Amino acid sequence: METELILQLSKFGFTQNEAKAYLTLLRHCPATGYEVSQHSGVPRSAIYEILRKLELSGAVYSGGKKPVHYSPIPPEQLATQLTSRFEHNIHDLKDKLSELNTPSSGQQTWNIKGYTAMIDHGRSMIDDAKESIYMSIWNRECFELKTQLNQAENRGLDICVFSFTKLSHSFSSAFSYNIDEEKLRKIWHRQIVMVADKKNAILGGADKTVDNQCIFTDNSSIVDTCLNYLILDLTLFSQRKNIDVQKNISKMMSAKTDKLNILLK
Predict the structure, then answer these.
(1) Among 212, 213, 165, 211, which residue's Cα sits nearest to residue 186?
(2) What is the C-alpha to C-alpha distance for residues 174 and 118, in angstroms, rounded to an integer?
(3) Angle 153-172-148 (CA atoms, 0-180°, nearest 5)?
(4) Disulfide-capable partner of 152 in 58, 97, 120, 157 (CB 3.0 to 4.6 Å)?
(5) Whether residue 172 sits in one domain with residue 44
(6) Tell me: the pLDDT tens digits for 54-112?
(7) Do 239 and 163 share a domain, yes or no?
(8) What is the extent of the structural domain holding 57?
């Protein structure tokens, strides 16, 4: 558990020794620098500088004199602090990047290598979406994205999730064949198709490896192809399960599809 917590804290800028010191203080506080060193395994020669940095960052506070005792802020407060700091930093970064005035190159498509990068791109797409998220996904990836999907649903976005696998999380519009994920994995390639606002998409493999390959695109032709793929999956699901999904399909259809339907009629 501690190894996992150290890894998680490192994602937010903590060094390994800083994470060890903070976690130690959660278990033993208040504590002197010497006591933190003894319990955490952080060298005594380094502990006071580490505690000073943690205090300056607001993760711990000190009290008393000779010897000074240290205490951590509660985990909930730390999470709030890190969230606020991240949001401030990301807005600051956006402002500075926008000053570069990088010329737009029109529609773009690029490769996403690695499972973690794919999930990160997916989360960003959902966070940036303004109207809708449509996806064909397996339960594992749905679980990885559920926080962002819940937030998007709370913002009033139209969410539709299709899966061949049993979903452990429910949404207002979720359709599943409820196939066991391990059984399906033996005969079917794990993949993801996700479309945001009918404007951009992620599609490709969803293997949990550093070599996983998928693409991100805002190319309108590819996005329309992804939407048609999702519509086909839902149409077949509707026929097999005798469930009406026309309302969901109608929302997915692009304006071009509607015009084509008029011509066909």
Answers:
(1) 165
(2) 22
(3) 30
(4) 157
(5) no
(6) 999 999 999 888 889 999 999 999 999 988 888 888 888 888 887 886 665 578 899 99
(7) yes
(8) 2-75
